[in-house]
Amino acid sequence: MMKRKQMAAVLGVTLTTTMIAACSDGAEKSPNGDAKNNDPAKLGVSITILDRGQIASDEGTYESNRVTKYINEKSGINVKWVPILRTQSTQKLNTLIAAGEAPDLMWEYDRNYMSTLKDQGAIQPIDDYIEKYSTSYKNYLKAHPELKPYTMFDGKTYMVTSARGIDAIANHAMWIRQDWLDKLGLKMPTTMDEMITVMRAFKDKDPDGNGKQDTLGAAFNYNYTGIIQALFAAQGGMWYLENGKIVKGNFTDRYTDVLATMKLFFDEGLVDKEYITDKNFQKERQLFVTGKAGIYFSSWNIPSEYRELKQNVPDAKLVPFEPVSSKYGKFGLYQEPPANKLIVFNKDLKDPKAAVKLLDWMIDKNWFDVRFGQEGVHYKLVNGVPQAIDADKNKKEIAYAPEYAVVDQYSPKPEDFAIMAAQDAISQEYAKVQGESLNTAMKNKFRRDIPFNPTFPELTEIQTSFSPLSDEIETKVITGGAQYTPQWGMEQLRKEWKRLGGDNVDKLAQEWYQKNVKTN
């Protein structure tokens, strides 16, 4: 983690060079607004960017905005950004690759997906490029040897990455309305049974005091299923070491309890029953921010939801709480592995020097300017930490910016949040809670028995077929009433896996474990 004084030293260089100034005055513009490049010798490269719908129309597009213009001018490289819709990222990449239109650099967080691209011959090893063209990234990798296993397949380097900061390792979290607990005379839940009791009270005992039974035990975002799975150490998409053998999470006996818990929440109406069709979780979010749900299963960092809740319900007191224990013990909620974005090189890459130089430029120190914007406009430095000047301005102008820093060295400390936040009351209030949330999210270690999942073609193939079947089975268990028991669901999951060739895949997975993990 970068020490504060080290960060200050980094910030002292070139921070007066601003993104806005770099993008507005004095540069000849092309028709789409980007600075024209009249130098035919200038390096050029294309790269994906995840489109999360965060850019206001008057800020531009994911292809062209104040951040892309800054990068193009200051890096000395013509960078073409190719937006990939976040909710369909791998599908879109697959389409571009199949059409021969994929960009030079592609990135995702999923190592399994990158393994698939390697098996398909869509990407290439990059050891020689790093050795020949890199200085800063090569030195960075030497300083972070823990990242090396995440970048390699078959003894060769296929991926570039950087270390996640603690704020990016923390991921899933649970929040609770402390004011509702206080009003109903309830204590903070520490076990699954206690949490269910609290959720029932939130549903039945009118915690918002409006005289109506219109509240819910919980609402959630897309992390809901993963949070319930983590409470039982049974992530469906992960493999666990059980008695010397690796077992897929949704075939452990503990997964029966995952299905039983989600079925109970649904059957008793502790959660909104329409969530099954709420694919983007917008109704769930609305239920929470309007004060109609007592627990929020979501992410450790929820600034916009917190702000909207306080605006709608000024007396709400929202606090993070630790994962509850079950009969299996207490487990941490999902935390990311140390490697951040995984960047791969298209097999048809024309200019590897440009690709490596962009990554060198970014990892060196320029990630900070990309991430935080213009000093004096978006932030001021306080003890070497960037403090937001105007939260609303930053939300519009640079909320989307961090993702363009495809490699970086950012790792804040919980106590930094109060400095970094804008000075309005809600921002400062949330900054304190944000620090508590990060500490809470990291307090209990997430169970990760092996550093990353097995990767081999047979596994990829079976998962493609199995995934929609498992979704259908689990939905039946959760929503289908008494006839579809959790035990029935487990039988069906195991039956379908076996029918698709799961016995052979399990055998190959064990061989992969012996070769790639146990012997290393």
Write the layout of secondary structure elements.
Elements: H1 4-11, H2 19-24, E1 43-51, H3 66-75, E2 77-85, H4 89-98, E3 105-108, H5 111-119, H6 127-133, H7 136-143, E4 152-153, E5 156-157, E6 159-160, H8 166-169, E7 172-177, H9 178-184, H10 192-204, E8 216-220, H11 224-231, E9 239-242, E10 245-248, H12 254-267, H13 282-289, E11 293-299, H14 303-312, E12 318-321, E13 342-345, H15 352-372, E14 379-382, E15 385-388, H16 391-397, H17 416-420, H18 425-443, H19 457-479, H20 486-499, H21 502-518
Parallel strand pairs: 1-2, 8-11
Antiparallel strand pairs: 3-13, 4-5, 6-13, 7-11, 7-12, 9-10, 14-15
Helix pairs in contact: 3-15, 7-15, 11-12, 12-19, 12-20, 14-18, 19-20
Return the CATH class of the largest domain: Alpha Beta
CATH topology of the largest domain: D-Maltodextrin-Binding Protein, domain 2
Strand fraction equals: 5-15%
User: In the CATH hierarchy, what is the superfamily of the largest domain?
Assistant: Periplasmic binding protein-like II
| Biggest β-sheet description | 4 strands, mixed
Uncertain stretches = 1-38
Structural class: alpha+beta
- The coarse silhouette is globular
What strand order characterises the main sheet?
A: 8-11-7-12
Summed up, the helix count is 21
Work out the helicity level: 40-55%
- Radius of gyration over all CA atoms, rounded: 24 Å
